[in-house]
Design brief:
The complex is a heterodimer of chains A (108) and B (233). By secondary structure, chain A is mainly α. Chain A has four helices and no strands. By secondary structure, chain B is an all-alpha fold. Chain B has two domains: 161 residues, no CATH class; 51 residues, no CATH class. Helix content of chain B is 73%, strand content 0%. Chain B has twelve helices and no strands. In chain B, helix 1 packs parallel to helix 8, helix 2 packs antiparallel against helix 8 and helix 7 runs antiparallel to helix 8. Classes of the chains: A mainly alpha (108), B mainly alpha (233). At the A-B interface, helix 1, helix 2, helix 3 and helix 4 of A face helix 1, helix 2, helix 3, helix 4 and helix 5 of B.
Chain lengths: 108, 233
Amino acid sequence: MSINQQIITIALVVIGTMITRFLPFVVFRSSRPTPRYITYLGRVLPGAVFGMLVIYCLKNVSVLTGSHGIPELISICVVVALHLWKKQMLISIAGGTVCYMLLVQLVF
Amino acid sequence: MKNQKLAALKAAFPNTIPIMTGFLFLGMTYGVYMRACGFSFLYPFFMSMTIFAGSMEFVACNMLLGAFDPVGAFLMTLMINARHLFYGISMLDKYKGTGLKKIYMIFGLCDETFSINCTAKIPDRIDRGWFMFFVTLLNQIYWVVGTTLGALFGSRLAFSTEELDFVMTAMFVVIFIEQWQKDKKHISEFAGLALSLICLLIFGPDDFILPSMLALLAALTFLRAPIERGGEI
């Protein structure tokens, strides 16, 4: 690929990404009232999307081979337990990550 | 006015600490990867400045190594990043009335920025617009610094950063719990986990996001009446 072709490719990736980010804001301008269906989606989508993102983070975990996803499962339980107990985002994340690193390096 | 911005920056920063850790390490991985594929450090630097979508930048690296296919690159980008449409719809109200900085906030609406801006409890005395602006800006700074450092010095570092990726997983789990506690009914949370998992099993790790989004859209549309009953969601 020539340097110009590389620049065109990167530019198209930038434009594609920007379309996905700007489209909702352009279609539903603040000057006009947002349709009720879209307002509804705006309220229910975050819960569904965060569920999807959790799965997305774990997409390459193999349950059948390697460590069978056990370190991930244990560490996620630690994150949930810490968060329900202390309600401190940083403690939950740090605790879960340290647990994961220890499990991967020392146990599995 | 200056104090107002400074206060917003101070309030925003602690919320971005997990992302700082995650982005510095993931960004460094990306920088090392780009260099290993034979690109100058300028590539990851400019791509992180302009694309600012982690997984997309890894894919873009592969595109640059392949044959020139502009239409394919464009369509592939739309598919991989289609989830941003959901973020935009969810942030329509929150980003309303934030002035010109809204343009930058939309430009920088990546997974992590969306998660923080969507769930953070912003104190009343803090300007919401500036708070969300600084979350966006700080996150992009972490990512650009991470990729550039990785590209410049990555090959000299001999430690494994792989396990630190779990910071991101842990963060999304925490954000999921926060959202769970905010909602009265948990239909959308269950749907998000279950439908994405089913789609992952059917379509595999590389192609499950788009089917998941369609399935979620269909499920949430179909369940609108029961979910909206009683007013609470």
